[in-house]
Amino acid sequence: MSNGGTEFWDRSWIQVSGAPEAGKVSQSYAIQRYMTACAGRGAQPIKFNGSLFTVGHDLPEGTSSTESSHDPDYRAWGNSFWNQNTRLMYWPLIATGDDDLLAPWFNMYVQALPLVKDRTQAYFITPEARSSRRSTFGACPM
Question: Cα(110)–Cα(98) distance, rounded to whole angstroms?
Fold first, then answer.
């Protein structure tokens, strides 16, 4: 974010007033936008199941994560990107003017396109590209 983030914060904001709880709406919106901006500037798309900020605790060496006892990197849905869920992180970015944060999501599919075309040709004997709703961390759709 350049200029101390001024350009980013000037693109979109919500200022709610009224009841004492109304300020929480403005605060929650700003926090969610901040978290999305932090997670959406890397090479990989935003993860729908925890984004950058997951919680857990250190496990003894050699212990595997489980749903009830896990380290901060554990994700119940694994490391795949499920388009039906991932898209929910991205749709609001168009309305907030944060379309620059869409690039990692689109790039994942563009980078996988040659593999997707070859796989579709091999399975369906057609030159089109067919992508599944789940993509792995390396952007090779399953």
Answer: 20
